[in-house]
Amino acid sequence: MAFLQAVIDGLMIGGVYAVISIGLTLVFGVMGIVNFAQAEFLTLGMFVAFFAWKYLGIDPLVGSLISFVLIFGLGVLVQMTIIQRVLNAPPVAQIFVTVGLLIVIENLSLIAFGSDFRSVTTSYQTSALRLGPLFISVPYLAAFCMSLLSGLALWLFTNKTWYGRAMRATAQDPMAAHLMGINADRMRQIAFGLGVGMTAFGGAVILPYFTVHPTVGHQFVVLMFTVVVLGGLGSVAGAVVGGLVVGVIQSVSTLFFPIQLQNLVLFLVFITVLAVRPTGLIGAAR
Amino acid sequence: MKPWIWGAAALIAAVVVPSFLDPAGYPIRVLTLTLLFAALGQAWNIVGGLANQISLGHAAFFGIGAYTSTILLIHFNLSPWIGMLAGAALAALAAYLLSFPTMKLRGHYFALATLAFSEVLRVVASSWTSVTGGPAGLSVPYAADSLALLQFKSTTPYYYIILGALVLICVVFLVIQKSALGYRLRAVKENPDAAEVIGVDTTRVKITAAVISAALTALLGTLYAQFTYFFDPEAVFGIVAISVRAAIIAILGGAGTLAGPLIGAFVIVPLEEFANAALSSRAAGLSQLVFGLMLIAIILVEPRGLLVLVSNGIARLRKGRKG
């Protein structure tokens, strides 16, 4: 029964991992760039939701929308001013520009917010639903549902709207997309904004059960890499499955290993997938 | 002037300088750290510069060096000189094993894999408290000034030992660059597929470079531990503190060149130390922020580094004068 409980917990948190990681995979899919600063946007999303809760009294689950909008805007700006310039640069420049971004964002938040740990209090924080012998924690369930909704919204956007199709066209062949009258630069801005916005959203919805501080992103770095590599870098559907799988692996592994070694288990999965099938185990590799 | 004259002049200056400085003062500490990080950048340069394999995980080997020698010293009273070799051997083994899953990877994928590797070691060091001291870190026990135990009150002996390490790593870099291995690495860098076609065993070439680089990095980890007397997982396994810094030092100066990491270290380390001393009390993180901004700026302005930027600038000036 402990095993089943761990699987349920894993699925709940895995849904959030999926949303967080979709951002990383989306940016890679459209631009071929791994954003090493991705986890920092999660931190920013958490901070936005925290301050919305503290000063405006907005529940983090609603505040997640504010996080998404603000970080989307920030992402568009970052794309226009920084990432755009290294699109055709060698990988070393692309890698270190986002690493530089990581350092800048982390230390800006350290300067602005201090190194304190902050958390919110909500009415449903400690409640759980009972299903026979199993429990589902309400904040976990809420975060999972929000993730599900946002994933659905993203799917509708990319598949049913002109902008979404134009973005996917840009990912497949920027030149051809350009010839069809698509502004490829604009599409990349939207993609980067969406990418970091989704991650910020994921950060906000876990706020009811997660503490925020400027280096909170570190805990998600290996995790996000594992999710996207498992699902195939660039594949959104892969990231969803990868997120759920990683959530379950992580949760179940705590039954056998000390909790601190979760990352070690994830790394073994990550490195094995990279070695065996770098294009990912799940989803269509592009 | 020929390059070797520059090298000889720099070396003589480096040997003479400490006699003008207070052996317990701040300037010689900064200089010693600068040499240490120049050496680290040069060790990174062997894989990152010559083979263009962008490692974001050199902290893994640095940390292995620091922890191995310190743990051996604490528990078995083993001299750090021997512990240093043990650490280097362990780091070489780790690099060898890591190379199996990562050698086929290029660019972003390689960077991802190496970064994840060092992150995992950091987590292990933080959680395996009985051996590593956990998040609180380890202190190197100080007994008395002793060359055998690699510990001194004054900074000057460290300065010369670390200078020796820097010279050693620069020589290794030069030898590799001028050897057949260096030409093969360059072939791998320019076009891995073409290198493979003309008969370069690219996997073997890359593994050789990675193992050498890892072992040298571990040596520096031991020296760092002995020099600072105290370290925690973040200090030796940190992404920004070690891995990114090693890479930036090489890239800022000019990756793949002998002088690159030296120039990079002499720009970055004193600047950071100065910023820390001047600002730290007012705003934690400000010097790191400057560090990050510099990184973005150099990549956007001239990704080939300061060396190219300066020589281009001089060329433009000369042209301007003629015209």
Topology:
The complex is a heterodimer of chains A (286) and B (323).
Chain A: H1 2-31, H2 38-56, H3 60-81, H4 91-113, E1 128-131, E2 134-137, H5 138-160, H6 162-172, H7 174-179, H8 184-205, H9 218-231, H10 236-256, H11 262-276
Antiparallel strand pairs in A: 1-2
Chain B: H1 3-16, H2 26-48, H3 59-76, H4 80-102, H5 107-127, H6 129-132, E1 138-139, H7 156-178, H8 180-190, H9 192-197, H10 202-228, E2 230-231, H11 233-237, H12 239-253, H13 259-279, H14 286-301, H15 306-322
Antiparallel strand pairs in B: 1-2
Helix pairs in contact in B: 2-7, 2-10, 2-12, 2-13, 3-4, 3-5, 3-10, 4-10, 7-8, 7-10, 8-10, 12-13, 13-14
Q: What shape does the CA trace of chain B take?
A: globular
Tally of discrete structural domains of chain A: 1
Which sequence of strands runs across the widest sheet of chain A?
A: 1-2
- Largest interface (C-beta under 8 Å): A-B, 49 and 45 residues
Radius of gyration of chain A: 18 Å
Q: Which strand order do you get reading across the main beta sheet of chain B? A: 1-2
Number of helices of chain B: 15
Q: What separation lies between the terminal Cα atoms of chain B?
A: 26 Å
In terms of quaternary structure, the protein is heterodimer
> How much is the radius of gyration of chain B in Å?
20 Å
Separation of the first and last Cα atoms of chain A: 39 Å
Task: Name the average pLDDT of chain A.
Answer: 86
User: Runs of chain A with pLDDT <50, length 5+?
Assistant: none
Poorly predicted regions of chain B: none
- The number of helical elements of chain A comes to 11
Summarize the helix and strand pattern of chain B as letters.
Answer: HHHHHHEHHHHEHHHHH
Number of strands of chain B: 2
Order of helix and strand elements from N to C terminus of chain A: HHHHEEHHHHHHH
Please describe the biggest sheet of chain B, giving its number of strands, its sense, and whether it closes into a barrel. Answer: 2 strands, antiparallel
> In what range is the share of β-strand residues of chain A?
under 5%
